Amino acid sequence: MTAMSRAAAECFSLREPQSVPYLFRYLVPVLADTAEAVQFVEEVLREEVNLGRQGDIVLIGRRIVGAT
């Protein structure tokens, strides 16, 4: 992640680098396309966000807003 951020900084002026949820995304390809699956993924996302805010887990996703 450090290398990715460094590479982005070489091309852009980084304005808003953030750690964001990512682990919930692993569920999407393995679940059926149903309303129940959507609700489950949404709940897992909420849980990941809350655990990240509490410092219980490290959010591994990255959102980087930059400008040229």
Describe the structure.
- With 68 residues, this protein is of the alpha+beta class.
- It is built from two helices and two strands, in the order H-E-H-E.
- It is elongated, with a radius of gyration of 15 Å.
- Mean pLDDT equals 93
- By helix and strand content, what is the structural category? alpha+beta
Instruction: Compute the number of strand runs.
Output: 2
**Cα shape:** elongated
Order of helices and strands: HEHE
Distance between the termini: 21 Å
In percent, how much strand structure appears in the residues? 15-25%
Helical amount among residues, as a percent range? Answer: 40-55%
**Number of separate helices:** 2
Q: What strand order characterises the main sheet?
A: 1-2
| Rg over CA atoms | 15 Å
- Poorly predicted sequence stretches spanning 5 or more consecutive residues: none
Q: Please give the largest β-sheet.
A: 2 strands, antiparallel
Write the layout of secondary structure elements.
Blueprint: H1 2-11, E1 13-20, H2 35-54, E2 61-67
Antiparallel strand pairs: 1-2
